[in-house]
Write a structure and sequence with these properties.
By secondary structure, the protein is an alpha/beta fold. Helix content is 40%, strand content 20%. It binds iron/sulfur cluster (SF4).
Length: 215
């Protein structure tokens, strides 16, 4: 990353961190993935059961392997084949009551809001109530000015890239934009805006990383 790009990433990242703090979140800026991983691991108590949301960013940190090596039980539904619907449902259900829920966010506004759209709801559910602690790791590419641009980012960037990854083909893939589809293949089903740290979480940590991570 050149020096101007690094400056911009740090400036946006730190602005988001300050905005998140004003809304009750514990927020930090990490220069890179390695630093973010170290910060996240430090926040996970020994023996904690960890749930992992559907997130390319979290898998990119290689944190799941490290947690298991340390003896943590990690609930990762991406390890269950899509065909095994019941097992996937039970694991996603169990994620809701873990000690720590580790995930990213589809978008984070410069006002300090976390914005997400789910197809199943397990991730947005665990981000709002259930686990004792949440750790959200997000690259600066997820930062947007406001709620409107957050929804636009999700539907115009996160959805097509995730659909490509998952070999899904809702109409936005062909149209190149959201057409507010009304079909069973719709992946945008549940929208969540977290405007303030949800009260039952002992801690809600958001780590903004000065790199482009995930979608
Ligand atoms: S077309 Fe459907 S699946 Fe695609 S972004 Fe719009 S609502 Fe989501």
């Amino acid at each position: 990353m050149d020096s101007i790009t690094a400056w911009f990433a740090e400036d946006r990242g730190k602005r988001a961190v300050e905005a998140l703090k004003k809304r009750g979140f514990k927020a930090f800026y990490a220069e890179n993935q390695a630093q973010a991983k170290e910060m996240a691991l430090k926040e996970i108590p020994p023996g904690a059961v960890v749930g992992v949301g559907g997130s390319v960013t979290i898998r990119g940190l290689k944190v799941i392997e490290e947690l298991r090596a340390k003896g943590h039980k990690v609930l990762d539904h991406w390890e269950i084949p899509h065909s095994n619907v019941e097992e996937s449902f039970q694991l996603r259900r169990a994620q809701q009551t873990t000690d720590v829920f580790l995930t990213s966010s589809n978008a984070i506004t410069l006002e300090g809001q976390l914005v997400n759209i789910d197809g199943s709801g397990n991730r947005v559910n665990a981000m709002t109530f259930g686990p004792r602690k949440a750790i959200v790791v997000a690259g600066v590419n997820k930062i947007v000015p406001d709620l409107e641009s957050a929804i636009r980012r999700i539907k115009e960037i996160a959805v097509p890239m995730n659909c490509k990854r998952l070999h899904h083909s809702p109409p936005c893939m062909a149209a190149g934009k959201c057409v507010d589809c009304r079909i069973p293949q719709r992946v945008c089903r549940i929208t969540s805006i977290i405007e303030w740290k949800p009260p039952f979480f002992a801690d809600y940590l958001v780590i903004i990383v000065g790199e482009n991570l995930g979608f």
